[in-house]
Amino acid sequence: MFADLAEGLLLSAQEKILLIPIPLHSKRLRERGFNQSELLVQEIARNDTSSIFEVSTQSLKRIRPTPSQAKKEHRNERLKNLRGVFSADPEAVRGKDIILVDDVSTTGATMSEARKSLLAAKARSVLCYAVAH
Description:
This protein is an alpha/beta fold. The chain has 6 helices and 6 strands, in the order H-E-H-H-E-E-H-E-H-E-H-E. The strands form 2 sheets. The chain has a 4-stranded parallel beta sheet, sandwiched between helices. Strands 3-4 form a two-stranded antiparallel sheet.
C-alpha cells in the first residue's frame, strides 16, 4: 500500500517522500499528551520496508491555538478559524514531495490550510491523506 503512494508521485528511487503529520498547538499537545496524526505517521514509517518515506514532525508548525474544528458547523467558519494558523519551514520542505497525514477530515479545512502553507514554502507537491472522513 505505501509503495503505491510513492508510485503515484513518479519519483526517482533515491528521493524520499516527507511524511508530515498535521501538528497540534503546543498547548493542546500538552493537554492531550500525544498527537494522533504523528502516531499514524510513525506507524506508516515503521512499516516502510522500501525506505521511501522520511518522517518530518518539525517541518510544519501550528503557530497559534484554535478552537476545536468539531465545534464549527460550516466549512466557511472552519476555514476562517484556521486561516494563517500553520507555518512551514522552507529549508525543510523546498522542492520536496510531501504526504500530509491527519486522523480525521470532515470539511478538509485543516488539510487545505496546512497544504497552502507547505506549497507557499515551495514544496514540490503535497498529497493529503486522512484515516477517517
